[in-house]
Inverse folding.
């Protein structure tokens, strides 16, 4: 089977899943795409086992050869982050920048650390000898929330400005911090002494260099793109300039060894602010909104299809299921500490902690980072745990988030109308 045949089959499956969900299931489109792709994967696996079709191994080989994780990390992530940052209220982010910065840095480190020790204890009880360094690697992989997932599932949810700003801002900026922490954690698995990697403020200095350098580069590139767009009359050229901004800024960040995700987010925030009242905003926004939806659906389809690349045991599935509560606890502690320091009231901090914990969904970046793990005896088991946490967060947390928001903000809803009007996806 040629690669183009697999692409054709995947596109046909995506069209069928999307149409069926839109006509009958009516769950949020990304979740519908994910669930539909998982159903297709299960049917293929069942047919392969029962009818002895022997198609699973060729598909796994093709998926491995496609190098999808590096494609996602190389340019799809940049496009999605830029699209998500274009319409974000920059003034609201600036007003709550301290909380956002704490969540996107201290929160990431706390989440990875808590999950690391919790997972190590779980694996020890299960009789699996996985080193602490590898547990920390998976903690770093699952620490960042997915900006695409969070923004899509929040939709038109009516939240207090501080809470919404914290959720959106953290999800936009913690990807960069998560990638830095992941690379540092990998060095620990290679035998580098922890003191040389983490001690004497090295981790803090590296994260500051990556994040601040990425932000500075993004602002400069965004200013140049905004200046150009304001002086161009043709809509198509403006869109091309915005595309060049994303790809060029991301690649420049890699060359400069600063955070690419932070660079494109900063560029998108600045461009969206600069064109906020300009006549040229609608065509660009329409283009990026459509591109974001298409890439978003493709991302969720890809997450489901990647399950085909795994050959797992029931023991690995059981351990992965037990790791989900650990991930939730790690997420809760990672947001509770920064919010407890910044909130003026205990009730406010508790409510924001609950929302941020449940809205802290993992997605494509966690899957992509996990799939780049080097071959080892632990790789498959860590991948299964990663998939379990991602699937739980997207499906269970994503579907129940509207009900949680209505319950937590019932008083505000009674005064100002429903907190979550209609579909969260808009």
């Amino acid at each position: 089977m040629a690669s183009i045949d697999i692409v054709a089959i995947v596109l046909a499956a995506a069209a069928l899943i999307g149409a069926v969900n839109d006509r009958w299931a009516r769950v949020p489109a990304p979740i519908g795409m994910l669930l539909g792709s998982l159903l297709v994967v299960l049917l293929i696996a069942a047919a392969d086992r029962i009818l002895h079709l022997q198609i699973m191994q060729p598909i796994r080989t093709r998926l491995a050869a496609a190098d999808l994780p590096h494609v996602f990390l190389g340019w799809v992530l940049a496009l999605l982050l830029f699209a998500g940052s274009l319409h974000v209220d920059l003034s609201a982010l600036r007003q709550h920048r301290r909380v956002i910065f704490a969540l996107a840095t201290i929160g990431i480190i706390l989440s990875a650390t808590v999950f690391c020790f919790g997972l190590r204890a779980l694996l020890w009880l299960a009789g699996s000898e996985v080193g602490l360094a590898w547990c920390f690697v998976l903690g770093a992989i699952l620490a960042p929330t997915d900006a695409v997932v969070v923004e899509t599932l929040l939709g038109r949810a009516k939240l207090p400005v501080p809470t919404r700003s914290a959720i959106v801002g953290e999800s936009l900026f913690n990807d960069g911090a998560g990638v830095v922490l992941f690379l540092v954690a990998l060095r620990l698995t290679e035998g580098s002494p922890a003191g040389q990697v983490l001690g004497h403020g090295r981790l803090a200095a590296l994260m500051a260099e990556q994040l601040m350098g990425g932000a500075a580069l993004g602002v400069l590139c965004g200013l140049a793109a905004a200046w150009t767009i304001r002086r161009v009359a043709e809509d198509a050229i403006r869109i091309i300039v915005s595309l060049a901004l994303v790809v060029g800024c991301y690649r420049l960040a890699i060359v400069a060894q600063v955070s690419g995700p932070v660079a494109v987010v900063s560029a998108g925030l600045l461009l969206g602010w600069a064109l906020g009242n300009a006549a040229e905003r609608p065509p660009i926004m329409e283009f990026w909104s459509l591109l974001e939806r298409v890439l978003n659906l493709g991302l969720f389809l890809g997450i489901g299809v990647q399950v085909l690349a795994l050959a797992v045991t029931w023991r690995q599935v059981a351990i992965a299921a037990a790791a989900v509560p650990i991930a939730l606890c790690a997420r809760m502690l990672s947001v509770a500490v920064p919010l407890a320091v910044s909130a003026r009231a205990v009730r406010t901090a508790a409510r924001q902690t609950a929302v941020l914990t449940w809205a802290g969904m993992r997605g494509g970046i966690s899957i992509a980072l996990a799939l780049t793990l080097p071959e080892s005896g632990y790789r498959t088991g860590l991948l299964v745990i990663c998939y379990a946490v991602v699937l739980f967060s997207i499906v269970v947390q994503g579907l129940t988030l509207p009900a949680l928001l209505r319950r937590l903000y019932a008083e505000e809803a009674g005064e100002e109308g429903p907190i979550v009007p209609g579909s969260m996806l808009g």
Summary: The chain has 20 helices and no strands. Confidence is low (pLDDT under 50) at residues 413-426. Residues 379-408 form the longest helix (30 residues). The chain has one domain: 68-416.
